[in-house]
């Protein structure tokens, strides 16, 4: 549940320091490497941003 919660916070645009505070982490590597996972929505957003970038070249 912590992994899902962390990923959904990131998907919602919550900053890494805010997520770390919420989880009680002092080391950002723990938050990023253990708890933060890329969601399907994040993948879609990345694809859309790349498409927009390529369309504007």
From TrEMBL:
Limits of the Tyr recombinase domain: 1-48
InterPro entries per UniProt: DNA_brk_join_enz, Integrase-like_cat_sf, Integrase_catalytic
A Pfam family that the UniProt record links to this protein: Phage_integrase
Example GO BP: DNA recombination
A molecular-function term among this protein's GO annotations: DNA binding
Claim: Ribonucleoprotein is one of the keywords in the record: no
Keywords associated with the record: DNA recombination
Protein name (record): Tyrosine-type recombinase/integrase
UniProt source species: Peribacillus psychrosaccharolyticus (Bacillus psychrosaccharolyticus)
